[in-house]
Amino acid sequence: MSRKVIKPVLSAAEAVRSVKAGSRVMVGGFNYGGIPYSLVEALVEAGTGDLTLISNDTAYEDVGHGRLVARGQVKKVIASHVGLNKKTGKLFHDGLMELELCPQGTFVERIRAAGFGLGGFLTPTGVGTVVEEGKEVLEVEGRKYILELPLRADVAFVRAHKADRRGNLTYFGTNRNFNPAMAMAADYVVAEVDSVVEVGEIDPNDVVTPGILIDALVVKEDLYYAART
């Protein structure tokens, strides 16, 4: 077996060294589910700042990647929902952080477009609203569409259930959410998993994200993820 296909298994602290100041970082998850908590916590501890955070939401100010926002490590958020994290709104309204809200379906399609190498796509979602401001609007067969552009990151942190040493990933339930799409749309992808097994122990029919997309693996650490007081 060629060693070239074996993915490195890193600690979370080692893995987040791939994130430099000013990086665009995708983080999987939807509310509490599917967040790569160990990786996010390590990034919080590293203190890396000036980040553009690309995530479905900003969790809560004391949970997951919401802590990156609350700690002032994020200069811009691109998300579809931020109402559960009061710090996100405050920083935006105080002019201390940029915020780009994107309809959820459009958000994930922009990520998919980047993953598949597309130049963008047309959607009627947001036509005639603030969503179309600053974007090109095209008319096709009498109907208006917004041209939405791909959304790509320097680094993606995704959460999966299990990996083999080649980086093939399986997911568990709704924790899957945005993670497979994000794994396709970054220059460097780290997958946080419950366990890493030997090649051949995962049925190929169960693989959702192929290992060719994954650069490194991290086994989740025993952290306390609940909201902190």
Overall pLDDT metric: 94
* Cα Rg: 18 Å
What is the CATH first-level class name? Answer: Alpha Beta
Q: Strand-and-helix sequence, N→C?
A: EHEHEHEHEHEEEEEEHEEE
Share in helix: 10-25%
Termini gap? 49 Å
Tell me the number of structural domains: 1
The coarse overall form would be globular
Uncertain regions: pLDDT < 50 for 5+ in a row? Answer: 224-229
Tell me which CATH architecture applies here: 3-Layer(aba) Sandwich
β-sheet strand percentage: 25-35%
Major beta-sheet overview:
8 strands, parallel
Number of helices: 6
Strand order of the largest sheet: 1-14-12-9-2-3-4-5
Q: What would you say this structure looks like, in words?
A:
The relative contact order is 0.19. The protein has helices at 12-15, 37-46, 66-70, 86-93, 104-115, 179-182; strands spanning 9-10, 24-27, 51-54, 74-79, 98-101, 121-123, 137-140, 143-148, 153-159, 162-164, 169-170, 186-193, 195-197, 216-219. It has one domain (9-122, 154-217): Glutaconate Coenzyme A-transferase (3-Layer(aba) Sandwich), CATH 3.40.1080.10. With 229 residues, the chain is an alpha/beta fold. The chain is globular. It is 19% helix and 26% strand. It is built from six helices and 14 strands. Strands 1-14-12-9-2-3-4-5 form an eight-stranded parallel beta sheet, sandwiched between helices. A three-stranded antiparallel beta sheet has the order 6-8-7. It has a three-stranded mixed beta sheet with strand order 11-10-13, with no helix packed on it. Keywords: Transferase. It comes from Aminithiophilus ramosus. InterPro entries: 3-oxoacid_CoA-transf_A, CoA_trans_fam_I, NagB/RpiA_transferase-like.
